[in-house]
Design brief:
Two copies of one chain form a homodimer. With about 160 residues, chain A is mainly alpha-helical. Chain A contains seven helices and two strands, in the order αααββαααα. In chain A, β1 and β2 form a beta hairpin. The longest helix of chain A is centred in the C-terminal third of the chain and has 18 residues. The radius of gyration of chain A is 21 Å and the shape is elongated. The structure holds a DNA duplex (39 and 39 nucleotides). Chains A, B: It comes from Teichococcus globiformis.
Chain lengths: ~160, ~160
DNA sequence: GGAACCCTACTCGGATACGGCGTGTCCGAGTGGCTTCGG
DNA sequence: CCGAAGCCACTCGGACACGCCGTATCCGAGTAGGGTTCC
């Protein structure tokens, strides 16, 4: 019951893409070196984001990624689901149907009450993630990270991207 | 990012233990046959519940499991955490520390803002699970499952347990 | 008839095997920008 | 001097290897109750 580390990487990549000037892209290479993670594997996470329509890509030299929408329109849930998938955490095998005392054809329709509780918790998790956008995160970062570190990071990335 | 199927089994086992008369125990064998799951493996889930103090055991013949507390005092979260563990679903590797522009010793204290959002969602998930008790589940079952099926299941289990 | 004994059924923990998936790497196809070469 | 061809860097997708963990099974130690046997 762990989220994959690609989720963390994708979130950090989206975070640095928030303050990307128009017309610029961040390459996988720059992002991987900036975060200290393997380039080829990080590429998988970015491809997931691309498949989900959260980021745009440009092929070729000076290519790379940038956000496809405004930071305020991208929630944590969007990113987590892009990487992790949209299926529920709890998989109901409907084992109540194995009850030897259950008449045939009974309990086959309608969700299992136990599954319903688990799915409600899943919903709460998703709601919480959906309530925070990349814009909110940017604000939080601007408040907690010294301005010079932010600016230097920005320049460091732009130096290495098209 | 899936909960193990043992979670589902443990929840169903706890559900049937709710209406167990005082002084009686349900054996692993009975529980496994009732739910149609492998006995030896279900035993692992029950052992997890036992380790967490949610159920009591009696060794020997006519032995088995019963709830250690009243159904109202056992939440879904208790059961899920007993089987799945108590650690968060999001593991923060603190990759922001790899930022080449970050001055040494900076950002090392205080949680990563991204991790904080993920942990808040985790908290929401846990709160949702903690808000439903086995007592609530029993009520829901009594409302949705026909009384004769409940009674017959009860007797079926008691016939096979001490 | 009562007590001691054995047998059985169960819990509990460890050991083991297998498969799937997360993790990580490598490679080839496609594409766009830059450099270089030729007219 | 200018256009075209080649080169390079990057994206994207697939293939592959490795290791961990969830799944599943088996076995032995310990224990309590019931049946059996012996006094």
């Amino acid at each position: 019951m762990n989220l994959k580390n690609q989720v963390e990487w994708a979130l950090h990549c989206c975070a640095v893409m928030c303050s990307l000037p128009d017309g610029r892209f961040l390459s996988t290479k720059a992002l991987s070196e900036f975060h200290g993670v393997p380039k080829e594997y990080l590429s998988k996470a970015l491809q997931s984001l691309s498949r989900a329509g959260l980021v745009e890509t440009t092929p070729g030299a000076a290519g790379g990624y940038r956000l496809a929408r405004s930071p305020a329109a991208v929630s944590f849930l969007d990113i987590v689901e892009a990487v992790e998938g949209r299926k529920s955490t709890f998989l109901c095998a409907n084992i109540r149907a194995n009850n030897p005392c259950r008449p045939r054809g009974h309990c086959d329709d309608g969700p299992c009450p136990i599954a319903r509780v688990m799915w409600q918790a899943d919903e709460a998790w998703r709601r919480s993630l959906a309530s925070v956008s990349l814009h909110d995160l940017s604000g939080e970062l601007a408040r907690t990270v010294p301005g010079d570190v932010l600016a230097r990071s920005q320049n460091w990335l732009l130096d290495r991207a098209g």
